[in-house]
Amino acid sequence: MHLRRKILFKIFAALFLLFFYCEFCIYYVVIAQCSWPFLDPKLEHSNIDKTSEEPVTIMVIADTHLLGPRNGHWFDKLRREWQMQRAFQTAVALLKPELVFILGDILDEGFYCTSKEFENYVLRFEKMFALPDHIKLYMVPGNHDIGFHYEITPTRVSKFVNDFNASAVQLITVRGNHFVLVNSMALSGDGCFLCKPAEMQLNHIERTLKCSRAPPNSGECDENSRLAVYSKPILMQHFPLYRQSDMECNDFDSAPMPIKQEKFRENRECLSREATYQLLSQIKPRLSLSGHTHHGCTKKLMLGDGIEITIPSFSWRNKNNPTIGLGIFTPNNYSFTKCSLPRETTVILLYIIGVNIIGVWIIHTLLIKGRRKHLK
To answer: CA-CA distance, 57 to 179, in Å (whole number)?
Structure first.
């Protein structure tokens, strides 16, 4: 009896250690291999003055798709939220970013859930993505949060903006680095209740950037609207800028075939061509960050010398190998990379190998025990 209890204790201990590693430790093991990108002095923008201030570090995720009461099994919901919470909190603890950005589709059923369900969403989000006071969190809405353009209502927008502090257009400036956050669904250009204010805010940001670029006291603009330090901004929104498909995307986390070949529809899978040109002409970003497609992509911008990087979905429900974006910025330089998170298939394989090893050990132990009884 004593020997049987001893064996059972070892089995439960082995299973607990396997579970603890796969559901907790693995996030530290994998994310600890990530590091902030290096700022290459050769890539400094010669027309923008250096500053003596520390670079700004940002972490970017997209498409968390917190499940609601309708889509997905309860266990699927429980597991995905645990995975995202552990990955997010581990990344924040190890990497210590200054700013965190979430690029839309935070909720999966946000655009048609009830007020009570939305309140539940907010509470779950605040628990999963809690941050210390010194780290600032910013978000843009996605189509799953408030709906596509034709589905959006003032009530939905107001609810999301109030609870997630994600207005249509935001200009965030940190130590001379300017981040322009835009609601992709407000760029249809039809003068809707959401589009008109967004256009006015973008026009204001355009004037502010232009004024800040001009020499001081040049008389070209109101000096009160000048930014303390001018630098080319970083554009952030949910939709990718216009592209025909993901065929030109060759990142390690890009879409598999044949998904890559699927044609994008304007204002559905990507921003319209017209809105893209207008946005790039107004903002003139050095970097554009987006989500929505659930897969990674890096490509050159249609206008200017910047690039666009699409961040894959942060949910293992949508992506076997999610990643987080890590960027470091000064007014005249930047560097951006993507950090891999544990693969779903790797975790499943670890469970299979671990359970099999425990099973072999049990059989081996029982055989030895049986032989000893037989010898007696």
So the answer is: 12
For the entire predicted model, the pTM comes to 0.93
Residue 360 to residues 10, 11, 21, Cα–Cα distance (Å): 13, 11, 20
Nearest C-alpha neighbor of 312 from the set 334, 340, 335: 340
SS3 content of the chain, % helix, strand, coil (to 5): 40, 20, 40
Kind of pairing between the strands at 136-140 and 99-103: parallel
Greatest CA separation for the chain? 104
DSSP conformational letter for 270: B
pLDDT at 244 over 90: yes
| 3-state class (DSSP) for residue 69 | coil
CA distance linking residue 26 with residue 167, whole number of Å: 36
Helix (H) or strand (E) holding 282: helix 273-283
What's the full length of the chain, in residues?
A: 376
Q: Which of 261, 289, 96, 85 is nearest to 184 (CA)?
A: 289
In 3D space, the residue among 212, 208, 200 whose CA is nearest the CA of residue 169 turns out to be: 200
User: What are the tens digits of pLDDT across the range 201-232?
Assistant: 999 999 999 888 877 766 667 666 788 888 99
Beta-carbon contacts of residue 286 (< 8 Å; ≥ 6 apart): 45, 231, 232, 233, 234, 304, 305, 306, 334
**Which tokens in the block code for residue 189?**
């250009």
Residue 271 tokens read as: 């921003």
Cα–Cα distance, 22 to 19 (Å, whole number): 5
In the chain, the amino acid numbered 309 is I
